[in-house]
Batch of 4 targets.
Target 1
Amino acid sequence: MENLEFNKNEDQYKQIIYQLDTKAKKTKLGGGEKKIDEQHQKGKLTARERIEYLTDKNSEFLEIGLFVGEGMYKEQGGCPSGGVVAGLGYVQDRLCMIVANDATVKAGAWFPITAKKNLRAQEIAMENRLPVIYLVDSAGVFLPMQDEIFPDKEHFGRQFRNNAKMSAMGIVQIAAIMGSCVAGGAYLPIMSDEAMIVDKTGSIFLAGSYLVKAAIGEDIDNETLGGATTHCEISGVTDNKFPNDQACLDYIRSIMGKVGAFEKAGFDRVEPKAPAFDTKEIYGLFPSDRVKPYDTIDIIQRIVDEDSFDEYKALYGKTIVCGFARVNGWAIGIVANQRKVVKNKKGEMQMGGVIYSDSADKAARFIMNCNQRKIPLVFLQDVSGFMVGSKSEHGGIIKDGAKMVNAMANSTVPKFTIIMGNSYGAGNYAMCGKAYDPRLIAAWPTAQIAVMSGSSAAKTLLQIRVASLKAQGKTIGKEEEENLLKEITDRYNEQLSPYYAASRLWVDAVIDPAETRKWISMGIEAANNAPVEKFNVGVIQT
């Protein structure tokens, strides 16, 4: 029976992974094959080709925000990946944040979500003190939506503020102008440490030839106005010009090969080991029916290095599993929701995926220990929320939950979050959701992120709708009520999807569970570039 269940789960998960891979391949085409050909005809590489050429051969690239913009801006023809490719890659063995405008998507124009994605890339670079390489090829702000991208605090202008702040922090920033670079966007490469430009295809100016004509009546072509020769030989705005993309990227590699080493955080690492069990066995262990229980330790053993997991307080607060382990040699502290039903020493049954007072108390103490020992934290989420009801309330669940949130929020060691399944309500918060500054946050394709489960929310929303209709003197029959419930459920379930979350950057990526080790390992390697601040938990509720 167990094998039958495993095979059923595995078959379903493999279908989900196939859908993920298919969606990823389509998204990576950006504006499509025709637009890619147009880039090639101009003698240009695409954003993805530039990154592949720039990064070390056979090295890993950890893409951030592949599914950004998914299903958004349909009236404007869509904006795959937000019109920009971003991620962590190795250049001359040095981990860098690389940001490349995708000129196949609306000429690389900035949509509101593009700004959010660029700011997320800069945030990751600032938190981890990583060098940033900008490959600029953008028509600037998407004018029809300028009110949603231009004036606010977290809009387009924030990136230039970040350029200045990163420079003051000693973070290396290198920029290459490999296509258009206009208006306010012209400040980004020029606020970098060094700006290079590709001859004939690169151009940079505050206003293009049409705007110059309209504003001051001057007739001038874009190349004379702001091409490579102008800026390298007349204005001095750019530092060097290159005949093509490849030569420009070779020069960036040369720069990065000479950058000195900076102070490290000093996280512990030993010789890596593979997990004791094949990571892809997770497909069969993870129930396709999300109500069914499973033992989270089985999942952990397929993510961490063999023989490295030491559980903390295994006999207490059993709905959260805490323990020390290693991933690819790096020491980590794990905080994971236990999804099987457990029994405490008082003989009480506790539901899997629910945070009780004892488990919140244990997790808070464990998080503080990890900070004391300078061990990065990994949160594995499959959480329904905190326990409710008079017994829990009288037992001080809010106080214990606050203790856990306080320790987690004030934690100064880097935090990484993987949403495996449910991520509901305050459980999302306590388990280091997006609002709590995880260095990276990724979701498996089985993740569901919302204030409550789909069925609970749909029934609640239906009751509100029916009461509202009654207040207007209207009544609805059983069939109409069922149709209304289906409509509400379908809409809510769409919002539960990990792709919905990824399109809005609530998570950095939707990943195959087999990639979890890579995300944690590269995340810690990035975080190791930024020294850890002193931990101060503040006032703890006791």
Note: The chain has a mean pLDDT of 91.
Target 2
Amino acid sequence: MTDESLTTVAAPDARGRVAELRAIREEIGRGPSEKATAAQHAKGKLTARERIELLLDEGSFQEVEGLRRHRATGFGLETKRPYTDGVITGWGTVHGRTVFVYAHDFRIFGGALGEAHAQKIHKIMDMAIAAGAPLVSLNDGAGARIQEGVSALAGYGGIFQRNTKASGVIPQISVMLGPCAGGAAYSPALTDFVFMVRETSQMFITGPDVVKAVTGEEITQNGLGGADVHAETSGVAHFAYDDEESCLEEVRFLLSLLPSNNRENPPTTETEDPADRSGDALLDLVPADGNRPYDMRAVIEELVDDGEFLEVHERWATNIICALGRLGGQVVGIVANQPQSLAGVLDIHASEKAARFVQLCDAFNIPIVTLLDVPGFLPGVDQEHGGIIRHGAKLLYAYCNATVPRISVVLRKAYGGAYIVMDSQTIGADLTYAWPTNEIAVMGAEGAANVIFRRQIAAAEDPEATRARLVKEYKTELMHPYYAAERGLVHDVIDPAETRAVLIQSLAMLRTKHADLPSRKHGNPPQ
């Protein structure tokens, strides 16, 4: 028998090969077994492919390296070589725009990261950076694959390095859909946004068993690192939802507000909400009495297109609001004090929250609108010993370093250093406006009078009457609504009802703004 005849006999025809390929792809699509899929569903969790289908536009997913299998041996691994190696990678579209994604498949090795698994993630991250498109990770993995030893552990290093390389270049979104411990929790911490699902997702460096062994403390997985803990206490999670479906729908909404990369502007949309719509309701929403609280969310809702916005870190550091919305179809980032919580003061957590949000907006060409009603920084031993100076400086640094269009509006109180830090004109705001109810001053009139006129009040026959008279004089001289405008510290005092129109007109003017920072490798921001 000749070599040619041997070749002819050994090789099936092309249709046979295609049929073989289709069978393999069907096997990959089904996953390891129906039993494994049922177990995943029994935990209230979707499979990796079901999650990808919810995230991406229908039929748009293109898988990369679905045929990949590990080459590790030992501990029985050589007999278990499933396709995908426990992670599904590829790209698709969200609202028609390209998005890259990788999803841990908990049904295979518990989604644990091995060498081949890590290399697949490295490749898709490199592709996302090169293509200039967002990267979404659907996390449901058990950490490093212990059977592969340090080779698996080293895979995390490559992910962390790429997270850092992509930071500020493409949006990175981490969606936590299962327990993620140790190294699996660090990559999400390096990304721009973290989503979590209650009851089914957790993040911690060391689990409850290790905590108990080392400290003696007993705690559940959710109590240690559940969605509510990270959304309310630690600030690790930006968003928390009750189920995977609503979580992934909100990821899609967030992507609609972000540019594909740092070289593009966020997508604009047509809106039927008139740019010159009068906001008469604002006159009633914000009390003129500076001591009366109100909900700043209602103000934002009145200003933005169709009253729709996405609040970031809604339940952490609630004395400040950070949100993405649209004005005249253009995406804006909104930073606003919340008088309903701690009277809207700045403290350590609020400063950190707002600083990172300002940096995010600046990185991705999102104009920043700041709404001020701030009585100052929160006083107290805990705040001072906790480093309020250092943390407050983070917000100051972020604003001073931002080159995107920046507009601030003083609604009511703007006292002391907090006024300067909240994007005042003196630190580079492009336009600053104030309502007629504004009080821009070093401190409140009562405190100022007590300092300036301390001796005069103490020597008076009627100290309380004297104090009241001097407080009124101080307000009249230094705290009237036009004091700052007369000195050029605000560009104009505006009718609250015209705020939306003024903001939209100002943003249109600033759309072509160009600003250069000094030539440097990078700054050294306060930590």
Note: Residues 208 and 414 are 45 Å apart (CA to CA).
Target 3
Amino acid sequence: MFPQRLDSGLAYDIAKAMMDGFNRHYQLFRSESARAKHRFETADWHGQQRAQRERIEFYDLRVREASKRLEREFKAGEQSMDVWQQVKLHYIGLSVNNHQPELAETFFNSVTTKILHRSYFQNDFIFVRPAVSTEYIENDDPSAKPTYRAYYPALGTMAATVGQMVNDFELRNEFEDLERDAAYVVAALRAKLGDVKLRANFQIQVLSGLFFRNKGAYLVGKIINGFNELPLALPILHNSDGKLVIDAALFGEDDLLILFSFARAYFMVDMGIPSAFVQFLRSMMPRMPRAEIYNALGLAKQGKTLFYRDFLQHLRHSTDKFRIAPGIKGMVMLVFDLPSFPYVFKVIKDFYPPPKDTTREQIKSKYQLVKQHDRVGRMADTQEYSSVAFPRMRFDDELIEELRKFAPSQLEISDRDGDGNVEVIIKHVYIERRMIPLNIYLQEAFDIGETEPAAKSQIERAVIEYGNAIKDLVAANIFPGDMLWKNFGITRHGKVVFYDYDEIEYITDCKFRRVPQARNEEDEMSGEIWYPVGPKDVFPETFGPFLLGNNAVREMFMKHHADLLDAAFWQSHQSRIQAGHVYDVFPYEREKRFMRLNETAIP
């Protein structure tokens, strides 16, 4: 119900206190993101990783702070619904001139639902849809940076313009040879554009904040020529002497989609008006949902809000049913999907058959570890939701029985609204991008025939990418635990991504061993393990029988990744990580790197 009048002074005070809480949150979030520039300049890679982890916790901390203040100062949870409706209207008024109104609305939802203690809340008291537009927001403060800068080079001044674009970020480090690197960028651009005529509107637009992640800084922008736009990203790295180099030139939507992938850690970028950054990035990557762009910028709560709105919209405009997801069923997770929707829903089961020895809390802690860790393009990001309501009529009966059998504690079927619509309420669920399970991808090739050129190519691509995925995870200090093909998936860009987290460990916590020499013939013939095995012991040479039963797969694996079966490979990486080394894992192919042209760039 819309309140007839705004007559509660308390409502304004509550709204103002809540807005103060949001402003504090975004100020801290932005400050931490801005400090990424100093950490990059000083090569503080461990500090960068630590800041990326800690920033994820900022939102929940500020929500708790704001909730406690509202309870302490205003007894907010005891106020009438009429007061709360007025609070919402006052908050809208306070959001009109805010530079982050969409984030402020999401913050309001989080604090309100926490105070009202409703696992299933009424939509009257939250922002189901945006109330304040994010279009054309500008910061008129003379000291404020614009969202993007525009440059207008001619053919003869292109390299100088690239140098100016980089210098405008005022990085304190010296470049090894910026003029040389700018020439590489221009050469790559000419190879991309060919003999295209430069139109009257030819320009390069560059977002005013550098994008920092791990050991890299990325200049992100787009080239506009006539009716055509070409996305652009320039990775800037330290070389072995501590000087800066432009490492590559990335062009086009596909390169940018991989750079901003859901399987990578969140960027740190200083944004005064985040919606303007999102709008700019969306113009370059129209296939990437706004929710995933917000996630990539570290604004995961906003991404979560937008994802759920997109999901509800999809439900309204589709008629297919949720079903048990195709593929081999997991021992820990019950997975279902909606065929028309490109995500899967994962529910932790209530019990796990041997040899699984874990608990619900341990599994949730593994997922949290992945959320906070560098995912290096090889671990899928997940959204975590509580008390999600689905229309019962959209659920396949077989799926309902599966939930009743394996996760009864997580299932409620009722008309909790009292509106006559029966719903399936899942108490805790993870949602992540749907991929083709790697075992299914390989089986498709086997079905064609392993000697067929297309099948051989598919097997080779899958096996090489699988091994590369594991090596990237190792570089990020992650041991997957369960390395079976079914726990990996293929993305639309052909990248292999890991998505089964209940057995992951830090590489530095594992003990990689060779299988001991058999003491006698009885040991050698024994079907049982005769040597002692500790809880964190790993024997890489035993991976083969589980992974390489198919001859074509085995041949390709041994050709490209035989080192994964050798304990020495794992031990050497473990030692370097323990010594403080941070590996480079690049979100682009080696062939794109200018180091091919410049032998002094970092290896």
Note: The two ends are 64 Å apart (CA to CA).
Target 4
Amino acid sequence: MRNVGGEAVPAQDVLDIFVIGGGINGCGIARDAVGRGYSVALAEMDDFASGTSSRATKLIHGGLRYLEHYEFRLVRESLMEREVLWAMAPHIIWPMRFVLPFHKGGIRPAWLIRLGLFLYDHIGGRKLLPATRTLDMRRDPAAKPLKALFTKAFEYSDGWVDDARLVVLNAKDAALKGARIMTRSRVVSAEREGGLWTVDVENVATGAVSTFKARMLVNAAGPWVDVVLSNALRKNNVHNVRLVQGSHIVVKKKFDDARAYFFQNPDNRIIFAIPYEADFTLIGTTDNDYTGDPKDIRITDAEIDYLCSAASEYFSEAVKPADVVWTYSGVRPLFDDGASKAQEATRDYVLKVDGDDGEAPLLNVFGGKLTTYRRLGEHALEKIAGAIGAKGMPWTAKSVLPGGDFPATGYDAEVAKLKCGYPFLAERHARRLVRLYGTLAARLLGAAGKVEDLGLHFGADLYEVEVNWLIAQEWARHAEDVLWRRTKLGLSLSQAEAAGLEEYMRETVRSVA
């Protein structure tokens, strides 16, 4: 049954799998499972990627620094996934070169960096991504924004991803394949009864409660995974995850180069400075243990000072707190492996099946990262097959996400194609639409022949036709969903424009409900 953007599909009598959590892991598992023939429903208590999955550093990367903690399996799997994911979604994922400045007496010796980058180049099946090279910073343009003491640097490849769109496109594809996808739907209880799960789900907007039966339950609630176990599943003394706060700052563009920077700090931590949304630079991240409610996460003044200070060690023009135009913070739900420092806790994922013989099984998902979400999904399906029987074969490695059906290196050609069909589009607008929607951008624009056909203008290059698409096709319900997760136009719209968008969406959603 198809169900995209709405939630009117009746529940099946008995589902194979019920997934709790609409972050990258939950949506990735739901997509993989329904593609193999399982019947699936998913409930997210808020909007897709409203927690951790939209608050990452937005990298598809092997994790160069994880080599120091001997996480070779995770690094190799991550490196292998870079080009797989790029081919799956070339509109929202693309290669990026990273410059790692070096000077004598620095944090790590040159031989250690070279060794790490050699492994990075050779253990991950790299095909399209260019190899590492050494830069003479007395001649290379990458030196321009940096202090003069950095006369040498190493340049290597990783990838960039629009993290929130990666989540929603997995959800969209799962829905197109027949999964029932519910946002703003909170699981209030889940109990084992007669070899099945009975799951009660409350519609957050209306208070209405629906009941589902499922053969297996998947707890992919991210930072709330232990909360689900304690509250909905009524388990006592639960402590599986270590919550680690990661915060980022966004400042006006610090450099014109398309490459990003990898900075090493005296405390042995690293931060990135990355070109962001054309006009900005993203700087992050921090690593601090967090003990509060994940929904209350906020950057602290100390974190802002830390990121500004760390970046200022490298940039010739200091980064000051007054330069910050936006911040965001997320809680990483790392599996608690007993590491003494937050930055040393494993970034690998752990999957655990709970349930005695004859009981309906429960799969708990701990940890994970954007880069390995697809492989986590495959491993989760192995656990699911062992618990309730196998259906279908692994299929996602050669798949594409909605809008991603063009060659990995074909983004510019897609922009040219869209411009040819809609010549009234400004270059920047066309590029943004292809970045977000890929080959679906033309369907979004429909029969528009001039700018006026795009409808109400909400600010920047956001028009009614796009907002309506996001409501109908991508579960957007509030201005925040559009401005900070489906797009990043929150950086460009004024408060008054955002309020106007919220009013329009409130009326539009009400009229189609």
Note: The longest strand covers residues 241-252.
